[in-house]
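Hi F.,

I've been meaning to write this up properly since the lab meeting, where we talked about keeping a consistent format for the predictions we share between groups. The idea is simple: the sequence comes first, exactly as it goes in, then the structure tokens exactly as they come out, then a line or two of notes. No screenshots and no reformatting. I'm using this chain as the first example so we have something concrete to point to.
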Amino acid sequence: MLTGGRPGSMTTDVTSDGAAWLTSAGTYPRSTLALWQERPDAPVVLPCGTVFDVVNAPAIFGRRMLDRLWAEGPGSGPVAVYRGRMLLFAAPGTAQRLPSLLAWEEWGSHGDGRRTEAVPPLLCHGHGDAVTVPPIGPGTGADTSEARDGARWLVAPDTRHPWLPGPEVVLWAAVRAARATVRISIFPPADQDAKVYDVSRRR
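Output, unedited:
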């Protein structure tokens, strides 16, 4: 298990401190907070790169990563779902560093340059990018048809200083999720024309 600042528990309810942390990423935090006070059911677009980066994965694969983080690792920072994608909030700088780490791991290939569809590409949002943040209103984490189709929190921010995984932790979770998705044999395929010798009688 990884060591580090493990969060206390998963929660789908955004607290006032969590909302303050989210809005601190924007240019006008007070205006965003005022909007949420008036319309807590409204999603908001916030920039990445200063307060947080975001790693964007298909929902099913992202859920596998999240399960690994909580079952075997240090937990996660805030995590949201939006239009069939999972958004894992990560430490600033992750979007810049993670792609090179994935390339080193030959991410999404068989090792010979061929792509494998079972391991999807991960999208990294950092400086200059923005993401849609789910509403902070009560019930946004409920498993309703509206929530499944729209934006909702799986792990909501509940503090002004949430722990955020860095690129190494995200890579760790992604690699383990990929290993669970794709079985990779360390042995080459058997040669169908090779002779088989019985060595049990060898003296």
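Notes:
Helices lie at 16-23, 29-38, 59-71, 94-104, 145-149, 167-181.
Residues 191 and 197 are 14 Å apart (CA to CA).

If this format works for you, I'll send the rest the same way.

G.
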